[in-house]
Design brief:
680 residues, alpha+beta, Immunoglobulin-like, C8orf32 fold, 3 domains, 9-stranded mixed beta sheet, 38 strands, 33% strand, globular
């Protein structure tokens, strides 16, 4: 979202302050010309900062050369971004250096000022402005040199100073320079991340001067899927404090829970207290009340970037941002007799907060820390439609948070563990019992925990028709001609935090016969491997982030078969980072296969990436099987069925014959022996 804002007078034009030093433009390293991107060769990034009462001033100078045609689009436009509530901006100079001659463009500079709300569709409004300067008559080969001064007056925490800069870029740069002049009585704290660079420190009267100069740093390749706690490039934090208590002291007074509420909201809280005597149940009901009834809109303009609105104002307007909703929820819990406080967090980089120096700008989110007995709960009031009770609630998991209590200090939020699948999909195929009948497919999907919360939001924001169409498109790619024969059936057990979905399909007989589909029938758990990142391994140095714990189960049952089918050879894929376990079973008419995929770690170290990527490739192959379900077992050979009575008669006859052939001669011999006279 971009719209015109204020007049040209918002950005001033004037000379640089007397305390600045204009340094010579360095030359680019010719050996790195093949690493230049977008037609821009960067020559200088120079930041000079001085302390003043109530804030500080920052002079920034940028110099670059346009070396190719693509650089004209980027290099002929300059954007100055600022917050008018705390920034006063002056453009000090704008020059073009062409063939050694300096062309001054400052006098002819005109500003187009816009309010660019990048995340307006998400309900986020930060009030920042962009002053755009279109530099006329810029040519390939020109050097553009401009400088600005920002007078910065913090609205909150006026005594807090924080500055961070990168010590290496993705592209070649001739010189990165940072110079900070600060009172010697207020020594600055310095924390390096991904670099061992140290400043040159000197004195100037009552001030200390910190200077960093980095000439021709080697361009760094920024890798994707890196964990937040792994430094993608070298950087330095410089701050007025190393104690998080300083941040708490600056901001906590604005987040004290209130005790008075508008009558209608107070009545709702009192009703919760009466109906739910157990503290844990009161916590859940109050959380749902704030999550579901206060819509999310962030008016983070001016002091609103850090200071929440009064809960009564939030209730009256019916909307609030994370700060507003967190304070409202914390206040509601306190009224219900539950210990609660607001905590600051960062959605994307929260796992690396302990690697940075304290600063308000370290945070972009506010949540609530509640405590009942010895149990701590991390609640996010912006997670509307969240399910679960206290024992199975999907708690906020952003790494570290800073509770705004008197103790001051980062706290590590517990990482959730999945002991059972959070998503289970069961596909049940019924082959036709007689020619001409269709094949039927019923799909049962069950979502639990955080995945149930996500599915509940998806169902609320998407029509069932649209969702059903998306499911049908998925199955149509595998089974052309398949048709949906019933509406989606949804069952939401919010307290149990389980969402179930049932899909029903039919595949006509002609579609089953077409293209020998029944003879080449696919069964697969294609979605299982889609969530595993597969970044390139070429030149990679950093680990791979696997994200939040992942545990999925997919099963396929095929019925009404004419033969006994066996599964593929079981080759379970188990590594320290990911596991796929496969099983199958069968009867004379039914075949069932099941896959369980689970991540076992949050990240894969760089030394194990090759093995990990091989396991992901193996997983993608192992979850796709194909069968000829037209196969019929051949008839078994005819076997005569024995008759017990017949067998008994045969035994008697045999014994009689045996007696006849053996017993009679013996009897005759005995008789003959008796007839012989005795010998003398």
């Amino acid at each position: 979202m971009s719209s015109p804002a204020l007049s040209d007078e918002v950005v001033l034009i004037g000379p640089a302050p007397s305390w600045t030093r204009l340094i010579d433009v360095p030359s680019a390293d010719a050996t790195r010309s093949d690493q230049i991107r977008n037609g821009i060769s960067w020559l200088l990034s120079d930041d000079q900062i001085v302390h003043r009462t109530g804030g500080y001033d920052q002079y920034s100078r940028t110099v670059y050369k346009i070396v190719d045609r693509p650089g004209l689009e980027q290099g002929a436009g300059i954007n100055l971004q600022f917050d008018p509530s705390r920034h006063k901006v002056t453009l000090n100079h704008l020059r073009i250096i062409r063939d050694g001659a300096v062309i001054d463009r400052l006098a002819s500079t005109k500003f187009d000022i816009f309010r660019q709300e990048k995340d307006a569709e998400k309900g986020l409004y930060d009030g920042w402005l962009t002053a755009h300067v279109n530099v006329e008559d810029v040519r390939v080969g020109d050097i553009v040199d401009y400088a600005t001064t920002y007078e910065i007056t913090p609205l909150v925490g006026k005594d807090l100073f924080f500055f961070s800069f990168a010590t290496e870029w993705e592209e070649p740069v001739a010189l990165i320079r940072a110079n900070i002049t600060w009172p010697a009585t207020q020594p600055l704290q310095i924390k390096a991340r991904g670099t061992e660079l140290k400043p040159a420190i000197s004195s100037s009267g009552s001030d200390t001067v910190y200077l960093w100069e980095i000439r021709n740093p080697k361009p760094v390749k920024v890798e994707d899927n890196l964990p937040a706690q792994y430094p993608a490039w070298g950087s330095l934090d410089v701050a007025s404090t190393a104690n998080w208590q300083s941040v708490v002291d600056a901001i906590a007074p604005h987040y004290r829970p209130v005790t008075d509420f508008p009558a209608d909201f107070a009545a709702k809280l009192d009703d919760i207290a009466v109906k739910h005597p157990v503290a844990e149940d009161r916590m859940i009901q109050a959380t749902r009340l704030v999550q579901d009834q206060i819509r999310y809109v962030s008016l983070s303009i001016g002091a609103g970037s850090y200071v929440p609105r009064d809960p009564a104002t939030v209730l009256q307007s019916g909307f609030g941002d994370c700060k507003d909703k967190a304070l409202l929820l914390a206040s509601s819990l306190v009224r219900l007799g539950i210990s609660a406080e607001v905590a600051l967090a960062d959605l994307d980089h929260g796992r690396a907060l302990d690697q940075h120096l304290p600063a308000l700008r370290d945070f972009d989110h506010a949540i609530v820390k509640a405590k009942i007995g010895t149990q701590t709960y991390w609640l996010d009031a912006t997670n509307d439609l969240q399910g679960g009770k206290a024992y199975n609630l999907a708690q906020a998991d952003y790494g570290f948070a800073l509770p705004l209590s008197s103790t001051g200090g980062l706290e590590k939020m517990p990482t959730p563990e999945l002991t059972s699948p959070s998503i289970q999909v069961a596909e049940e195929f019924e082959f036709p019992e007689k020619p001409g009948d269709p094949l039927s497919l019923t799909v049962f999907s069950m979502y639990e925990g955080a995945d149930a919360d996500s599915m509940r939001n998806r169902l609320a924001g998407q029509s069932l028709t649209e969702l059903s169409d998306n499911y049908l498109k998925y199955y149509s790619k595998q089974y052309p001609g398949i048709q949906s024969i019933a509406k989606l059936e949804i069952l939401d057990q919010r307290d149990g935090n389980i969402v179930s979905v049932k899909e029903s399909y039919s595949l006509p007989a002609q579609a089953l016969a077409a293209n020998d589909l029944a003879k080449n029938f696919p069964i697969q758990a294609a979605d299982l491997g889609n969530y595993l990142p597969t970044p390139t391994i070429v030149g990679r140095r950093g680990p791979i982030s696997l994200g939040s714990p992942y545990y999925r189960r997919h099963s396929v049952t095929v019925r009404n078969l004419k033969a006994r089918f066996s599964g593929e050879e079981i080759k379970n894929i188990v590594t320290p980072y990911v596991s796929l376990k496969t099983s199958w079973s069968n009867t004379a008419t039914e075949f069932r296969a099941e896959w369980n995929l689970q991540t076992l770690a949050r990240e894969v170290p760089a030394t194990a990436i090759a093995d990990y990527l091989k396991s992901v490739e193996d997983i993608s192959k192992d979850v796709q099987w194909e069968y000829d379900f037209t196969y019929v077992d051949p008839p078994t050979a005819e076997v005569k069925v024995s008759d017990p009575d017949t067998e008994q008669r045969q035994i008697i006859a045999s014994m009689f014959l045996l007696t006849l052939f053996v017993g009679v001669p013996v009897f005759i011999a005995v008789r003959r022996g008796r007839r012989q006279p005795a010998r003398s």
